[in-house]
Amino acid sequence: MVNNRVTVRRQRASPGVETLQTSDGRPGADWFELVADGGGLVFFVLRVQPDVAFEFLSDGVEEQIGCTAAEGLADPAAVLAQIKPTHAERLAEAMAIPPGSETAVELTWHHRDGRPVHSRTWARCRQRPDGSVVLDGVTRDITQLREVEAELQTFQDRYRLLAENAWEVVWTASPNGAITYISPSVERVRGFTPAEAMSLSLEQTHPPGTAAGVVDFYRRLFAAVEAGTELPVFRGEQEYYRKDGSIMVGEVQVIPQVDADGRLYEILGVTRDISERKEFEAELRRLAVYDPVTGVWNRRHGEELILADLEQARGSGQRLTLLMLDIDHFKSVNDTHGHQAGDRVLADICRRILDTVNTTDIVARWGGEEFVVMLRNCGIDDALSVADKLRMCIADYPFGTVGSITASIGAAELAAGDDLASWLARADVALYKAKRSGRNTVRPG
Questions:
Q1: Hey, which of 71, 87, 342, 409 has its CA 20 to 30 A from 431?
Q2: Which is the catalytic residue, given 33, 62, 239, 369?
């Protein structure tokens, strides 16, 4: 006969380490209990019919809820009464499962020292030949996991609170670039609700130039992920479509988020609406080169443009002529009708000038009621003809309530050896001659 009896013996594996084996080399019951206790597990056999009693309870129960195994074996209430009252019904349902079934349940207990203990229990119900019903199961302490989850939830709630009340648009994307979240502030700056903004395609979100830049960024990002190199970040400006079709300019920061192992798990972006700032900057640039009253070039920029043509003409031989135009008796317009009326006259005169000369010519307000016009590819004879047209288009058509206005014009063609100062001086002398000739006339210089 084969002796099926198995005995348990202790074998010293190494100093301080004890291995428990059966006589045939398999782990014994004590070995499993040591593993359970060391892993924060509680194994149990709980009889639920015809009465309630623990038939087996591992020592790990003391660490979990402060009750010893001996106490639990002597009186099951020593363990079961530690359940959180709101979880008592859940515990009762688990104990009532029919034989042959299994259950997994999370329960909260009260440790004897007063702290809550969260656990996850797996149990199988079986009926024995004598009719009794038992639950065989194992319980794991998941308190630390729940605490970490609660802390994470707190951070998430705090993050969401900040995101949803931020002036900037906060958004996230999955590693494949799909948008997963957009904060409510997107509706303020673009007119789309978060749900609407998330449903838009790349082409519906950005104008072509910005869309191409976004594609390029993700191409570089995915290449870096594939190569295992440092992930790129983006800081710059992007254009977005608003719901009304207008363009919003955003200052954007995009930062890939990586886990402890360096794996990309999320893309975080923050977009700040800088449309007003860009409009202000554009206005400053406009004011830096344009006259705010008439809309033509101001003197500083006019000089830059004329000087550039002068330098080019020295090499190319292109003929250039300056017209210097001054409104006659303009001071009386301001004195009689006010400065606003005077400004309207100046603006109207510039419109008439622009309508008369070629679009390639340069028109600049030189100061007060004085203007300079540079005619490209134009000699003095043709320039005098253009100047006379300008004179007539001003003199022949009244300026509203102000009435008739006249202008005097001096003309000077660029000569060999001229620099900007000497060229302007000859045009100014010609203007002085026109003024001395009775005004409303044109003179060459």
A1: 342
A2: 369
